[in-house]
């Protein structure tokens, strides 16, 4: 069964005033992996940003959606979607009980089945949400979620539990895993974190799921 995948990050001696710079640092590392030589403005820029007060049941107090394609060439979105600019605008008012969420995209291999034909694999854009938490947001949930949490969405690009894997599928999954690990290690190297945790919503370790899935090929 598909599971939600997260990366939680904690920083030493962290204060709210440091959150914008920390977000920029993590998002820059994501942009490096997401762009990976790809042309176009969508990858490496912010697609949307939101600010949530108190907890996730509240409506956002700030939202902005950016247009990062040819339609944005003469638009303010072109400048606004630059990581530093988007973070500065969304965090202009820093509050202890706020969460600041930014949506970015990268390319992952996903299966595309058409009728009775063999499954074809395609590189498709996938959303990633990077959220910075104020210390009082959702009753201090940052202690479990991290000062910054990266939400990768469902873990199917890395485990595909409902699909029968052949060697081609295993290779595509490995490429997705390499991209996930490259981002995680880049954050660890460049962002000054004190600890990190890659975890799933069910609590089942991702590494164990990957090993069990790939062993079924043998």
Protein model, in words:
The structure is a single chain. The chain is 33% helix and 27% strand. It has one domain. The mean pLDDT is 85. The chain is globular and about 50 Å long. The protein has helices at 19-35, 77-80, 83-90, 142-145, 156-159, 167-190, 206-215, and strands spanning 4-10, 48-53, 62-65, 98-112, 120-133, 148-154, 195-200. The chain contains seven helices and seven strands. It is an alpha+beta fold. The two termini are 21 Å apart. 32% of the residues are buried. It has a seven-stranded antiparallel sheet.
Based on the model shown, name its key terms:
218 residues; alpha+beta; 7 helices; 33% helix
């Amino acid at each position: 069964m598909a599971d939600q995948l997260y990366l939680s990050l904690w920083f030493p001696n962290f204060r709210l005033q440091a959150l914008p710079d920390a977000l920029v640092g993590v998002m820059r590392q994501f942009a490096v992996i997401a762009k990976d030589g790809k042309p176009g403005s969508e990858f490496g820029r912010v697609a949307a940003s939101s600010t949530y007060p108190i907890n996730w049941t509240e409506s956002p107090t700030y939202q902005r959606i950016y247009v990062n394609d040819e339609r944005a060439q003469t638009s303010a979105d072109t400048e606004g979607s630059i990581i530093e600019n988007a973070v500065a605008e969304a965090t202009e008012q820093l509050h202890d009980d706020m969460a600041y969420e930014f949506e970015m995209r990268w390319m992952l291999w996903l299966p595309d089945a058409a009728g009775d034909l063999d499954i074809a694999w395609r590189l498709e854009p996938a959303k990633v949400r990077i959220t910075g938490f104020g210390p009082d947001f959702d009753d201090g949930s940052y202690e479990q979620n991290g000062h910054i949490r990266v939400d990768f969405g469902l873990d199917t690009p890395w485990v595909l539990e409902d699909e029968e894997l052949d060697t081609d599928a295993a290779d595509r999954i490995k490429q997705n895993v390499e991209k996930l690990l490259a981002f995680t290690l880049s954050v660890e190297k460049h962002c000054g974190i004190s600890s990190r945790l890659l975890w799933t919503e069910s609590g089942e370790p991702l590494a164990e799921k990957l090993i069990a899935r790939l062993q079924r090929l043998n």
